Amino acid sequence: MIEFSDVDFDYPQGQPALRDINLSIKTGELVAILGGNGAGKSTLVRHINGLLKPTRGTVTVFGNNTRKASVAEISRRVGIVFQSPDHQLFAETVEKEIDFALRNFGTSLQFRHERIRDVLDFFDLQKYRSSSPLKLSSGEKKRLSIASIMAWKPDILILDEPTVGQDAFQQDKLKELVGLWTDEGKTVVIVSHDLEFLWGLVPRLIILSDGSLVADGKTEEILMKEELIQGESLHKPQLLDLAVMLRGTPPYHSFQNASDAAKWILKSRE
Amino acid sequence: MYRLAQTFVFRRNRSPIQRLDPRVRLLISGQLLILVGISSQIHEVFLTLTGVLALAILAKGLRRLANPFFMAWLIVGSTLIFSLQFLLNESLVSAVILSTRFIAILLSLSIFYVILSPDEVEQVMKSARLPRDLVFAFSAALRFVPVLMLDGLRIMDAQRSRGLELDKGWPSTRIKNFIPLLVPFIVTTLVRSSELAEAMEARAYGATPNRSSLEILRLQRIDVLALCLSFAIFSLAVEFFLFV
Ligand SMILES: Nc1ncnc2c1ncn2[C@@H]1O[C@H](COP(=O)(O)OP(=O)(O)OP(=O)(O)O)[C@@H](O)[C@H]1O
Ligand SMILES: [Mg+2]
Question: Partner of B169 for a Cys bridge, out of A115, A205, B94, B173, CB 3.0 to 4.6 A?
């Protein structure tokens, strides 16, 4: 459970970065945060594990005010995968990189071995186990950074721009991961510009613009708002564009995913 | 960390100092640094410190120097020096002198960032006909100080989110705790500089022996005036410090 109430945040001597954010994300929910460059997405996400504390208002995570707990305590339950893997990779081997957080959190040896094996398998990194993380390609580094967070099974998983630099296969893998996580009743927050990736995966979208929350609702409903989508410099999924071109404004609210849209397009030909 | 970085980001303003020719500004801050170097008596140190502060006020940069994070470092550093000196020499005066000199040195170095932008440093060095590559490397390094500080901040965020606790444990573990910060910092810095080098080459850096400049520096009357004034004060101070 994540709760923002009346949150403002200003960077010291900078522009106000967040304004009047009211937001509540329930346990087990899967949501995406969208917005143009500099909208404040990463700033918002840094509030969830207490790296940043609000200038005004409060952020509570599982009922605890983030002001009152250390980042390490909150991070035990909130895992954030940041935008740039270069800012975290440091260990001699891929294996040790994953182990870093497990050791910090004092998990048992057996759990550590198990989790390292699992995430290496899942992300197809087993072959790099004992090589240096710095030698991986940038897509592989990104995957390793996700693996190193997933390893300790945080209750809330936050992914900042996870699709950047990932090929189609890895994007599907990422969707699978998100599915696995939500099946276990865990919360997932994805920060992304990539509506193509989010559509059919994420049921709720939150749109930030210039530090303010401008939309929050069901994906189908938000996709219907042409002006909003364009105004926030986002691209609608191409299939939806195609549907509009072929048949005019479609009943978006009944489109959960690509196959719904495809069926609707096909129906027009009957 | 980010706040600390703010002290070292150049901001253009319309202060009397910033309207002077950059060469004059460089000379003035150089003179101050020399004065800090040669002041040995307690009143001398305080006089130079006053000079540094006066320059900061004239450059409308006092607020930036008074940045609480920068101040915190200054105070920690000078207290450390003060107590070390006091314990070793058991002389209150020399402890005061040494720690205020430390403050004066740091302040006069950072005022450099308040009154000169990296571009202007580059211009000045170029007009002194220094080797081009040296000029470029120097100004690039200056420009990257705040960027690197932001990198440092991001790295701290990432590692703290993975349970790293910097202010916990025995001194030995604390030192070990710096490895997860240091390694990514060095790596990103190296990557950044090699990317910069490639990007510069891709834009034909070094293709012609002499790069042309967009702006040519010319001394105005006010610059000459400021120059004379600062030299007058400087030589008076030198005479006073060294021979009186
Ligand atoms: N450490 C910082 N100090 C000062 N200002 C910052 C800092 N980090 C970000 N900002 C500013 O805050 C605003 C929001 O930045 P943020 O990184 O949250 O945007 P974002 O939505 O994540 O953008 P992007 O899509 O580019 O990642 C921007 O205007 C940015 O310049
Ligand atoms: Mg961001």
Answer: B173
Ligand 1 neighbourhood includes A12 CB (under 6 angstroms): no
Q: Is B68 part of the contact surface with chain A (CB cutoff 8 Å)?
A: no
User: Model ipTM?
Assistant: 0.86
Cβ-defined contact of B164 to A72 (cutoff 8 Å): yes
Segment B217-238, tens digit of pLDDT: 788 888 899 899 989 999 998 8
pLDDT 10s digits, A69-97: 999 999 999 999 999 999 999 999 999 99
pTM above 0.95, yes or no: no
Nearest ligand to the CA atom of B6: 1
Asked whether residue B18 is domain-assigned, the answer is yes
Same domain membership, residue B238 and residue B178: no
A141 alpha carbon to ligand 1 midpoint, in Å? 23
Q: Which chain A positions have a beta carbon within 8 Å of B160's beta carbon?
A: 51, 71-72, 75
Q: HEC string of chain A?
A: CEEEEEEEEECCCCCEEEEEEEEEECCCCEEEEECCCCCCHHHHHHHHCCCCCCCEEEEEECCEEHHHCCHHHHHCCEEEECCCHHHCCCCCCHHHHHHHHHHHCCCCHHHHHHHHHHHHHHCCCHHHCCCCHHHCCHHHHHHHHHHHHHCCCCCEEEEECCCCCCCHHHHHHHHHHHHHHHHCCCEEEEECCCHHHHCCCCCEEEEEECCEEEEEEEHHHHHHCHHHHHHCCCCCCHHHHHHHHHHCCCCHHHCCCHHHHHHHHHHCCC
- Say whether both B78 and B181 belong to one domain: no
Q: Specify the residue with its C-alpha closest to ligand 1, atom 25.
A: A37
On the question of pLDDT at A270 being above 70, the answer is no
Residues B2 and B111 in one domain: yes
Question: Atom 2 (ligand 1): residue with closest C-alpha?
Answer: A11
Tens-digit pLDDT profile for residues A220-244: 888 888 788 888 878 888 877 777 7
pLDDT in tens, B24-49: 888 888 888 888 888 888 888 888 88
**Domain extent for B76:** 1-116+216-244
Same domain, B109 and B220: yes
Does residue B105 share a domain with residue B23? yes
